[in-house]
Every structure is written in structure tokens, then in C-alpha cells.
Amino acid sequence: MRRGRQPCAPGVTLDAGALIAAERGDRLFWLRWRRVQAQGRRPTVSASVVAQVWRGADHPQISRVLALCHVEGLDLSGAKEVGRLLAASGTKDVIDAEVVLGAIRRGDEVWGSDLEDIRRIAAAAGLPVQVVSL
């Protein structure tokens, strides 16, 4: 690291609960979102998470968030890793495991609402993941 430069703050990985909070105008979400933007932290969302929340209607607030996110897909190698992690954690939600693996890989914190499975999956991975409940 060069002298005088600050280490990068962790990015943010959004779970479905975060996008739902954005769409319903949750004040805490939007306060945190503005802070992340001001800090230059990179938000990421899985394409699977988008599919989980997108239900035929226009979603202006979700669209506003997605416009600033890196959208990540799952490839074959990642799918196998997700399956192994589901087996290790004893959980079944493919999207939760995908969110955890992406967050671990990037060193991100995870934002969501129902984070019990996220914590179980992270524990099974043996690597710390900071989770932020909305």
C-alpha cells in the first residue's frame, strides 16, 4: 500500500431483504445506502437475488439501487461451491449460499432482513462475514 492511502472499506452485498427495504422506502436502508455511496464502497447483488424480488411490476426504487450495483452471476464452479457449502451448513437456500460466497470472496458485508441462514452458512464456510440487518 502506498503511503498516505487509506485501505478500501469493504463493499456491500445486497440480499433480497435489502432490495425489498429499498423498494418500500425504508429510512434505515436509504441512510446506509447514501453513506456507502459517499464512502465509495462497491455494492454488489447477485442476479439470483434480483430474480427473487422482481415480480412483474415496475420497481423504481430497486431499479435505482441496481443502477449503482455490480450484478454478479453464478458459473459452474461457483454453483459447485454453493452446493458444497449448503451441504456443510445444513441449509437449503441456494441464493443465500451464493450471497455468502460472493461476500466472502470480496470481503463484503451482507445487508438483508432474515439473516439467520446467512450466519449459519458463513459459519460453515469458516470465514467471517459481517451481516447488517435492515
Structure in words:
With 134 residues, this protein is of the alpha/beta class. The chain has one domain: 3-Layer(aba) Sandwich (Rossmann fold), CATH 3.40.50.1010. Helices cover 54% and strands 13% of the residues. The protein contains seven helices and five strands; from the N terminus they run βααβααβααβαβ. A five-stranded parallel sheet has the order 3-2-1-4-5. α7 links the parallel β4 (109-112) and β5 (131-133). α5 crosses α7 (116-125). The longest helix has 14 residues, at 76-89. The radius of gyration is 15 Å and the shape is globular. It starts with 11 loop residues before the first strand and ends with a strand. Residues 1-7 have low confidence and may be disordered.
Strand content: 5-15%
- Count up the helices: 7
Helicity level: 40-55%
Order of helices and strands: EHHEHHEHHEHE
Residue windows where pLDDT falls under 50 for at least 5 positions: 1-7
Radius of gyration (Å): 15 Å
Q: Which outline best applies?
A: globular
User: How many beta-strand runs?
Assistant: 5
Give the total of domains: 1
CATH-assigned fold name: Rossmann fold
The CATH class assignment is Alpha Beta
Termini separation comes to: 34 Å
Would you tell me the overall average pLDDT? 92
The CATH superfamily appears as: 5'-nuclease
What does the largest sheet look like? 5 strands, parallel
Strand order of the largest sheet: 3-2-1-4-5
Structural class call reads alpha/beta
CATH architecture call: 3-Layer(aba) Sandwich
